[in-house]
Amino acid sequence: MRIGLYPGTFDPITLGHIDIIGRAARLVDKLVIGVAINRDKGPLFSLKERVAMIEAECVKLTVQTGTEIVAHPFENLLIDCARDVGAGIIIRGLRAVTDFEYEFQMVGMNRALDASVETVFLMADARHQAIASKLVKEIAQLEGDVTRFVTPQVNEALLAKLRG
Q: Where are the alpha helices (DSSP H) in 45-96?
């Protein structure tokens, strides 16, 4: 069984993330969405909220692809998370050249820690290349419209969080 791990903070999950998840699900038998706890980033949504959003958004993708997709919170090294879930593939999305520079370093370090785990890069769809969770939150905080960047359910959760 090919198990892939797609890690991130997903604060919140965007259409770009969903695109990568859908495409990655066609490459593996099981896709684990590694939800990084990463307290240093100061997420807007709690871990429980982020996991719930991911699970809700992935129901349709599971049906479409026939691939099991599960959310898995983690706070350890990415390579250790890959081992924990039995993943032989780490999936990363790339939006721009600057993403590649960082990811290139990460691949080297992860290969040094465990050469049996491969990293696969998926280029962001042109429609989603500019989407970043950080920017989505900033636009929403300034009362801008983010409906082109997130699903209606995520938009609703974002607005509710910012009002509350």
A: 47-65, 78-85
**Tokens representing residue 152 in the block:** 């209606």
The set of catalytic residues is 17, 41, 95, 133
Higher pLDDT, residue 111 or 98: 111
pLDDT tens by residue, 106-140: 999 999 999 999 999 999 888 888 889 999 999 99
Q: How many whole angstroms separate alpha carbon 126 and alpha carbon 72?
A: 28
Say which CATH number the domain at 54 has.
Answer: 3.40.50.620
**pTM for this entry:** 0.94
Domain that holds residue 100: 3-163
What is the Cα–Cα distance from 50 to 14, expressed in whole angstroms? 11
Our count of domains for the chain comes to: 1
Q: Tokens standing for 37? A: 């706890």
